[in-house]
Amino acid sequence: MPLLRNQSLLDCNTLRIAASAQHFYRVESDAELLSALEALQGESFLLLGGGSNVVLQSTTFASCVQQSTKGIALVSEDAEYVTVDVAAGEIWHDFVTHCLQQGWHGLENLALIPGTVGAAPIQNIGAYGVEVGEFIEQVTAYERSSGKSLVFSRADCEFAYRDSVFKHRFEDALVISSVRFRLNKTPSLVCSYAGIADTMQEQTPQALYEAVIALRRSKLPDPADLPNVGSFFKNPIVSVAQANALAQQFPGLVQYAHTDSQVKLAAAWLVDQAGWKAYRNEKVGVHAQQALVLVNHGGGSGDDILTLSHDIQHSVAVKFGVSLQPEPRIY
Ligand code: FAD
Ligand code: NAP
Prior knowledge:
Helices cover about 25% and strands about 25% of the residues. It has 7 helices and 19 strands. It has a 5-stranded antiparallel β-sheet. It has a 4-stranded mixed β-sheet with strand order 1-2-5-3, covered by helices on one side. The longest helix has 19 residues, at about 300-320.
């Protein structure tokens, strides 16, 4: 396995924050991963997939491991379902496209999400009414400290809204090596989000996949053109009572039922109403079409992004009494 020294991480994070790793391991097999873990001897390190959900606040990391293992293996198949094991370094969108081509369904709404398969369970990636956890049967990971292999069933993963056990009890403790998916052979299309059904020419998985891609391309900045990490804040979940009180004060409040007693507020609306949409300073700013997306206009550091995010959190808290939580991981 090639060990690179003093490697720039500029191209390894979609916010294009300048940082470097004194030791950089790009692992392309489980054996290489285990050698890297052995060399690291339990030291902490920055683990990256595609770097599309991280803010690098430190400018120098002692060690970084980039999970780049590849492979899709059929485990079982019957008339209704197919089960596949997918290596953690596979590119998420390529896997979604592969599934569609094979006639394996369920992931169409998650097309074009950046990043790797191995990172998908971490925050239970979701879009347009579908969450990846619905299709995950198990996750296999190595313990960073010992190299021991662990298997998590779907229940063990404790998937919730943009959340899982990997962000809590096992935060920065594991390297996911593969994810087992159970996909449908009979499509069941989720077309409830605005802009999806009305642009579909026909009710097929291919049309849904294309509608999602077209909608995302029309609304979201491509990190290759304007560096970003997607939504910077999670949509806050509040009690029905708090949402009702807010709606009285702010009649335009955008809210969606979450559970019987909880409501999901649209964080983008809160940020927009607090006056931040299209804000920019010399280096960083808020996207002009999507207030949840913080962007790096060039040369912005992790501190520049975090100062902006703290200012936004503060003004949303003052105006609405709602606490916004960042979605990306900060290192
Ligand atoms: P990274 O950013 O590299 O890592 C994220 C975290 O996961 C880090 O803590 C890292 O240490 C950990 N990690 C990475 N790989 C592993 C592994 N193999 N084992 C253990 N831990 C690991 N997210 C959504 O949920 N829905 C969306 O619709 C969506 N849209 C986006 C659009 C844009 C334009 C962008 C830039 C981002 C978007 N995201 C979205 C966020 C992001 O794409 C996802 O969170 C994605 O899963 C991150 O994958 P990654 O490989 O880039 O992870
Ligand atoms: P949108 O469709 O304009 O919707 C704005 C917000 O309202 C979203 O956050 C969404 O919640 C919520 N919403 C809209 N319709 C809903 C419905 N029918 N039921 C429940 N909630 C609804 O959002 P967008 O910014 O263009 O993004 C589209 C989808 O891609 C969303 O699902 C979003 O989560 C996902 N996305 C995520 C990221 C990321 O980095 N996490 C980045 C870009 C896009 P949800 O977010 O809960 O869906």
